[in-house]
Automatic annotation (TrEMBL):
Signal peptide span: 1-27
Name under which the protein is recorded: Calcium-binding protein
Alphabetically ordered keywords of this record: Signal
Length: 309
C-alpha cells in the first residue's frame, strides 16, 4: 500500500493518544489513512476545524508554522473519473504564502494538497500524490506550486460510497533539520500547519456505453433495431455492472450531415441493456448518448453506420 513516507514517519513520531499507526502487516490487511492522522492531530492541538493551524505531539513553545494556502485547484475544477484498475493522475495547483523565515525549498520541508471524504475530525478516506509538488518562488514569501493526486482504485480502498464530493486540505511540515526515523526525534521541534476548507472536487465512477444498429444494410421502410448497454465501474468488487433505469438518448446523423439529432429517449433495463426500434429512411449513423449523473460521467458512443437501400 502507498503511504507518504515523511508524513507516515511523522505521524508515527507524534505521541498523541488519538493517533494509531499500524504495523506493516496491519497496513497490508486494512486501509490506513495517513492524512486522517494528520487531520486528527491538527484538530487535537488546535481545537479548531477550519483555517490554518499547527500540528504537533503537544502544545509546544514553538510558534505555529506561518504558512497558508490559497488559489487551490484540483483537476482544473473537473470531476476525477476513476475506473476499476488503471491509476488516474490529476493535477493540483495552489499558492503558498509564508513568513520570510520559512524555507519551503529546504530538504527537511514537505507540503502538499490532498483531498479527503467525511469529516475533518475523522475522514473516511483520503487521496494524495505519489510525487511531491514542485514550487516556484514568485517573491520571498509567495510561491506557486504544481502537484498531483493519484488514485489507485484498489490500493486506495475506494468504494461506491466514495463517488461523492471530496474536500481539499493543505498541509506542511518543517522538521527543523530532524530525521523522523531517528530514535531521538523530538516532535516538539516540528513546526507544521494544516489548512482545511480549500475547495472541493467530485470523484466519479467511470462509465461505458455501446451501440449496435442492425441489420446492415437494410431496405428503406424496414425496421432497424438499435441495441447497446450502459455500464459503470463498481468499486465494491472492481468490475463493471449495468447502470439501471437511466435515460439514454438515441441520436441519428445523416450521412451528408455533421450534426446529430435526438430521435427518442429510452431507459436502460435492470441490467443496463438498451434496445429500441426505428424505421429505416436514409443512410446514416446511429449512436446512444448518456448525460451522466452526479456519481457517473456523461458518455456517448461513436456512430454505427447503416446503409439504407
Amino acid at each position: 500500500m502507498r503511504i507518504r513516507a515523511t508524513v507516515a514517519a511523522l505521524t508515527g513520531a507524534l505521541a498523541l493518544s488519538a493517533l494509531v499507526v499500524p504495523s506493516a502487516a496491519q497496513a497490508a490487511d486494512a486501509h490506513h489513512s495517513v492524512l486522517a492522522d494528520v487531520l486528527r492531530a491538527a484538530h487535537t492541538t488546535s481545537g479548531s476545524k477550519t483555517g490554518a493551524r499547527s500540528v504537533g505531539a503537544a502544545e509546544t513553545a514553538e510558534a505555529p508554522l506561518d504558512l497558508t494556502f490559497s488559489k487551490v485547484s484540483v483537476n482544473a475544477g473537473k470531476p476525477i473519473v476513476v475506473g476499476t484498475t488503471n491509476t488516474v493522475t490529476v493535477p493540483t495547483t495552489f499558492t503558498v504564502t509564508h513568513a520570510a523565515d520559512v524555507d519551503i525549498f529546504a530538504d527537511d520541508f514537505e507540503l502538499g494538497v490532498d483531498v479527503y471524504r467525511g469529516s475533518f475530525d475523522a475522514p473516511t478516506n483520503d487521496l494524495f500524490g505519489d510525487v511531491a509538488p514542485t514550487c516556484k518562488a514568485v517573491s520571498s514569501t509567495v510561491a506557486t506550486c504544481k502537484g498531483q493526486i493519484d488514485v489507485w482504485p484498489q490500493d486506495d480502498f475506494i468504494g461506491n460510497a466514495d463517488a461523492t464530493t471530496w474536500k481539499a486540505v493543505g498541509w506542511a511540515f518543517d522538521l527543523n533539520g530532524q530525521d523522523p526515523s531517528d530514535p531521538d526525534f523530538d516532535p516538539n521541534q516540528i513546526r507544521s500547519a494544516v489548512q482545511d476548507g480549500l475547495g472541493t472536487t467530485k470523484l466519479q465512477r467511470y462509465s461505458k456505453l455501446t451501440v449496435n444498429a442492425a441489420p446492415e444494410p437494410v431496405k428503406k421502410g424496414k425496421t432497424i433495431t438499435v441495441t447497446g448497454k450502459l455500464t459503470r465501474a463498481n468499486w465494491d468488487d472492481f468490475a463493471y455492472h449495468g447502470y439501471t433505469v437511466q435515460p439514454v438518448k438515441l441520436q441519428f446523423r445523416k450521412k451528408t450531415s455533421t450534426a446529430y439529432t435526438t430521435v427518442k429517449t429510452i431507459k436502460s433495463s435492470s441490467t443496463g441493456a438498451l434496445k429500441t426500434t426505428v424505421t429505416a429512411s436514409v443512410d446514416g449513423y446511429w449512436r446512444y448518448s448518456f448525460a451522466g449523473t452526479s456519481t457517473t460521467p456523461a458518455v456517448t458512443t461513436t456512430g454505427d453506420y447503416v446503409d439504407v437501400q
